[in-house]
Design goal:
- By secondary structure, the protein is mainly α.
- Helices cover about 45% and strands about 10% of the residues.
- The protein has helices at about 10-25, 40-50, 55, 60-65, 95-105, and strands at about 30-35, 70-75.
- The protein is globular and about 45 Å long.
- The chain starts with 11 loop residues before the first helix and ends with a helix.
Length: about 110
Amino acid sequence: LPQNPSTCLFDTIALAYLKKTLDLCAKHQITVLFIQYPLSKYLVDAFEKRAGAAQIAQSPVRLLIEQYPNARILNYEQIFDQQDQYFADYQHLNPAGARAFSVILQ
C-alpha cells in the first residue's frame, strides 16, 4: 500500500480491499486478470498533467498487483492512442471502437 496515503491519488481503503482480495485469491490458487481498457489520447494526457507520468507509471494499484504471481494486467490503454474515431467521448468506446477492441481481445 502507498507509503504516504495523504499524497496518493488512489482510495487507500479500496487498495486495502484489493490487497485482501488478491491475498484470498492467492491462498486459493485463483488466477486474477485485470484489463486496462483503451483510453483516448486526451484522457491519458489529462491524467499525466494532473498526476504526473511517474505516479501513473508507478500507481499503487499496479505495484500491488505486480506482487502477486497469480495476477496479470492486460494493458490496452494506449492501443487506440491516435484513433479518436473509436471514442464516443474521452473515455468510452463507440460501436466501431468496441468492435475493434473485441477483435483484439479474442
